[in-house]
Amino acid sequence: MDYKKKRLELREKNMAVWDGATDVFPVSPNLDSSLKKNTGFIRKVRTSLNEASLPSLLKDISTLTLVKYLSEIVSALTEGFTQCKSTASLLVGVEVSSALFQRFGPEFCGPLLSNMLHGVANPPKSTLNALTAENRQREAKARLERQRIVIRIIIELWLAGVFRSSLDLVDYDLPSFATVKNKAGTVDPPPLASIKEILSSDLVTYSPVTITIMIIKNYKDYLLGNESLDVEDESTKFVSREMQFKFRKVFTTYARSMETYTRSKARVLIKLEQSNEMSYLRAGRINQTRENDYAVLLEECEKLVNGCTELFNLLGLKLWPIQLVSGKTIKEDGNNNGNWEDDYERNFYENIINLSPRKDEEAKTPEIDHANEDEELIKDFESIKVEPTNVNEGKKSKKEKKDSEAESFVYKEKVVEDVVHTGDAEETTANGEKMMNILMTLSSKTSKEVADQCALDFRHVNNRASRRKVLNFFLELKTTDQHKLPIYTRFIATLAPICPDLVSGILAYLENYFRYIIKKPYPSLYLARLYVMRFFSEMIKFKLVPKKTIFYLLHASITRLSHHTAEIISHLLEGCGRFLFRNPETNFLLLKYLDLLKDQQAKQYLAVEDRMMIASALYYVNPPPEIKAEEKKRPIIEKYIRKLIYIDLDSKSALHVFKKLMMMDWEDPDTLKALKKVFCKIWKVKQGNIQLMAKFIESIKPYYPSFTVMVIDSILEDIKVGVEQGGYKNNQKRISQVTYLGELYNNRIIDHNIVMSTLYLILTFGYPNNQPTPYGCPLDPNDELFRIRLVCSLLDSCGKVLNHTDAAHPEKGIGSQIDVFMYFLQYFIQCKQNMSVDVEFQVRDTFKLMRPEMPIYTSLQTSSEALKSIIAGKVPEPETIDNEDFDDAEDDITAVDEVSRDSKYFIPKKPETELSEIEKERLKAKEARKQKRREEKENQKAIDDFEAEFQNMMLERYKNTPGKRSTFDIPVPKHNTPEVNYVPSKDGSKPQTLGKVEYMLLTKKVNKQDLKGISLPQESKFVESVLREKENRWKAQERIRNIVLRYEREHLDDDSPMENDPLRPIMQPKIVRRRVLTTESIEKMKTVDPETTTSSSGNSAKRSDALDK
């Protein structure tokens, strides 16, 4: 059965009911109201929701009244839903509910929704707190089972359209969580509100994760949709994209929260495991309570990890592995060297000459019982009692410290006698000389071969006296001969099978020396501590030291942790720590002692340098695992395209590479994706090949125009993103992008408007109103100069083509746009502080390329004025220079020029040749631009003079009365100078102005006023506004005059006196006009309406007299 098709069919019908349709479900005209059949229908709904009973149920709905039994039907249907065990039976219940809804509408679905939402609601916290722990756990389990069933029913009915929104059914006793409004002010649909209620019930153990997994498995296509598709698919017919996003956000948030909780639980589990191991080492067994706690926590963590993993897989999220056991195991280095760093070290410490005993039969290698050795070491570890650190240790008086340091370690003779038995009383002279030669050779020539040869030579003189000499030789070594210890120890290890008493004697000496230095915390013994621990380390690497002695050294040092013992531990771990860590026989106990060292380091008072020393040693022994970057998997076609563009492409192979690219299948998604990457990520291409890539785009454009548009959009968007993000790490990337854009313009792929808009975008983005200020902005600090470098790079790449296009097509106005931008660039540069030398040189090169004749400004004020002038259409004036300095500089230049001409190396100028056609056109266009600017300058001169005089007048006025506000009450001198030269038009509607307009400017010097005539061009904005204002005033006066005349004409034959009329004509006051009225204009004003004038009353005559005056 196609469930999706059936759901869609039911949804269309139910939505029609919500829209107001009443005839969706066919109902019999004669409904049966018998009690037996109605109660039988209720019984079938409660117990028989299955596919076999569906036809009879639908028939009963269409033939029975059922109106009086709606409440019983809702209760029975709710109970019947809870008994559905399969999807088929659940859909039968949905179809029955749809039929009832199509017949009865909200009267049916309202109580049903109320029942369902109360079924998923969580009980109040007060109710749960009143229960015992056992009852609370039982109630939570039953609630989860009920919620698992009810939430599925709600989702099915919502997808079918029976439920739409909780706001439609607010009158039916809905729980509070169903009507809560979100941040957007809307109410979530019933499924989403129910899911939030279920997931919020337990954020401690995350028990509802099983319900979440069930919902996603069954309704993922409807609730989540396909996130990778941008277009609407079939699932959007049920759930909109916006609602799918809300469902996905809820599930993703829950999954991330569960991951965080699971990892915290895993850390607790690992700590408990380590604590149990330490307890086992101390007591030899683990407490039963600890074991039970660990088992319970392990089971809980395993459930959390399994649920979290499944949830992440369903949502398509990446989950990093969660570790439930301690990861402290022996590292596998990935090589065959075992415990060693390289082959040389392995050969040095393992490949030793095997000397079998020949002369001394008594010398035998001692046998060690390894079975009981580990048990003894564990007992020693358990018996550790850490002594508190004495902060004042070593702070003795100077006299005591001097006397103590004067005492040196003396190895007692009886210890040697206990180890080395007295040899024969008489030694042959030959053996004595050989022995002396062997020891001298060993001490003078330190190499592996010399040590092996000396061991072979010693085999021939092996006796008790010789062994004693060798022992005394090693006991009398200086602490400064530490660099020879590896060779000496190899010699000892080679003789170990035939001289076991030699090894025992050296170990006894080192152990006594260690006991001495660990009790003496004096700085003068630093070399002694280093010597002893390095000697021990070399002996350990040759496996000459038993494990009990090794861990005794760590045991004694850790239990009395202080400055000098920290040095001892550090020297020991740096000498043989990695060997012990990699050796399976010592790895377990070493890890335990290292953990103990970390704990003691945290508890004890140590100086910063001591902590750093221990931390460095621990890092050396057990460094963190190396994280190797995973190689990105790419399709074969992408690898081939990357090889063509990034490796093979150059000026010689460009044609070959382009042919290969055009031969590819551009319809293939993998190929198109790879081509898009290499053409859009231009910063990965060699800098010299950017021009070739732009030429490729030019050749590709006729065949694949959409691809070209996509590349251009991507580059422009990347440039904008780079300006938004900033940062130093992307600087080279951004340089490549703007260079690429310039090359695209050079190949006629984009228009010059795109280049100009990009230039302004780079300089103005982030500033208020796109106006750079000397104070900078958050995206472009005042000392950041990279935007200038970007602009210069873009102009350097396409500046020549822009100039050439401007010369060939001056009608496009590219030159004026570039002029404005170059002045704007100077203004932007002056807003910056302390421009570096390299940027300054780049700016000079750019100006030399684009506008070599443009004046350079050195201050913010002059550059700002120049920018305003060029925007206003004027020619900016160059920055003024002091006359004396300028004359001196001119004299110097003249003198240098004369000297250079007199020189024999003077090269005369080349004679001028005939210009080409392009150069002639360029000169003509340039001359036309200059003429236009000259005319604009003349037109603006009058306005500039007027504005300057006006500003001076206002400044003078302000200086005479500073801080005082007074009215300007000076009578205007009586001059009949015309303000505007005009003649009225023939129709009398609008005056006709001439080319110039005369104004009278009132000036004041001290107490003397004066009028000054000013002629302004008619095209200036000021004159246009004045004329427009006077024209409007003229029209208003004409309109008032016509209204008055019309009113008089209407009341001409009225016998009532005019004095009592509230609308009687009002005598207009005398109007003083500042313009000169000609006789023709006055006559025109008098003869506006001849009929009205001849028939007007005395008031009209008075008005005419006023006008005559």
TrEMBL record:
GO molecular function (one): RNA binding
Keywords: Coiled coil, Cytoplasm
Region (Disordered): 961-991, 1077-1109
UniProt-listed InterPro entries: ARM-type_fold, MIF4G-like_typ-3, Nmd2/UPF2, Upf2/Nmd2_C
Ranges annotated as spanning the membrane: none
Comp. bias intervals (Polar residues): 1090-1101
One Pfam family it belongs to: Upf2
Any one GO biological process: nuclear-transcribed mRNA catabolic process, nonsense-mediated decay
Record's subcellular location: Cytoplasm
Domain of life of the native organism: Eukaryota
GO cellular component: cytoplasm; exon-exon junction complex
Ranges for domain MIF4G: 436-624, 639-853
Coiled-coil residue spans: 915-949
Protein name from the UniProt record: Similar to Saccharomyces cerevisiae YHR077C NMD2 Protein involved in the nonsense-mediated mRNA decay (NMD) pathway
Organism: Geotrichum candidum
